[in-house]
């Protein structure tokens, strides 16, 4: 059964402190409620220069690992007998991509990998101006099953530009999207994903590859950024 907002609040209140039940058979996505529980940030591991930069812990690393494992199981079922090309959308999806590949290897699912750099963010806002910076070997994905691996979908602007670009340039057999996170917004996204790990409230989040002005990618958990984090001068770290 799908983990509802109510059951998630009651059943996972201590998930940051103990190993979760195997979720590989859970229906996805997992829903993060609007009023999220306040998990203890102090229990998380992160660079000391980030102290005070997190408003709250949104998703602990144990939950991320379990959901990525569940996504890998879905992919194995759907791509059984084929060898898809997993395309990591840099930079934000890198940790998710790495762990997803690890679980697929454990399940003996074959795949190839590619990387592409795309951006539509400046600070905390999506600019709507999508830039595809390349990096993808188009010959490698020609007439293949492509799985785009994203960190987060909110407006869907990035994917709404990237997918037609790949369809035109690579003529793939299929293109699907796996995203770790999807924001719940009033307006529907311009592009949806077939595989979604979590749906989350409309907060600006950081960690586990997600950045604010190139900071905070280097944490194992996902946080809501604080005002102190937004105001922090990153040049002081150089």
UniProtKB/TrEMBL annotation:
Residues 1-15 have a biased composition (Polar residues). It comes from the Eukaryota. Pfam families: Pribosyltran. GO terms for molecular function: hypoxanthine phosphoribosyltransferase activity; magnesium ion binding; nucleotide binding. Residues 1-21 are annotated as: Disordered. Keywords: Cytoplasm, Glycosyltransferase, Magnesium, Metal-binding, Nucleotide-binding, Purine salvage, Transferase. The keyword Metal-binding applies. One of its GO terms (biological process) is IMP salvage. GO terms for cellular component: cytosol. Pathway: Purine metabolism; IMP biosynthesis via salvage pathway; IMP from hypoxanthine: step 1/1. Its EC number is 2.4.2.8. It is found in: Cytoplasm. It catalyses: IMP + diphosphate = hypoxanthine + 5-phospho-alpha-D-ribose 1-diphosphate. Its cofactor is Mg(2+). Residues 63-212 form the Phosphoribosyltransferase domain. CDD domains: PRTases_typeI. The keyword Magnesium applies. Belongs to the purine/pyrimidine phosphoribosyltransferase family. This is Hypoxanthine phosphoribosyltransferase. It comes from Nitzschia inconspicua.
């Amino acid at each position: 059964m799908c983990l509802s907002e109510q059951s998630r609040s009651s059943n996972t209140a201590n998930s940051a402190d103990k190993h979760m039940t195997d979720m590989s058979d859970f229906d996805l996505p997992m829903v993060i409620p609007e009023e999220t529980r306040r998990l203890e940030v102090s229990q998380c591991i992160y660079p000391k220069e980030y102290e005070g930069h997190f408003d709250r812990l949104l998703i602990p690393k144990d939950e991320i690992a379990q959901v990525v494992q569940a996504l890998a199981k879905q992919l194995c079922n759907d791509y059984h007998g084929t060898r898809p090309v997993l395309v990591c959308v840099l930079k934000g999806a890198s940790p998710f991509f790495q762990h997803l590949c690890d679980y697929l290897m454990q399940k003996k699912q074959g795949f190839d990998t590619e990387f592409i750099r795309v951006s539509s963010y400046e600070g905390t806002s999506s600019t709507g101006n999508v830039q595809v910076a390349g990096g993808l070997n188009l010959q490698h994905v020609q007439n293949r099953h492509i799985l785009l691996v994203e960190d987060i979908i909110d407006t869907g602007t990035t994917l709404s530009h990237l997918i037609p670009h790949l369809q035109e340039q690579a003529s793939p057999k299929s293109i699907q999207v796996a995203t770790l996170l999807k924001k719940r917004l009033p307006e529907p996204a311009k592009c949806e994903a077939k595989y979604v790990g979590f749906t989350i409230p409309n907060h600006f989040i950081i960690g586990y590859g997600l950045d604010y002005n190139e900071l905070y990618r280097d944490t194992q958990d996902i946080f809501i950024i604080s005002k102190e984090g937004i105001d922090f001068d990153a040049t002081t770290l150089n």
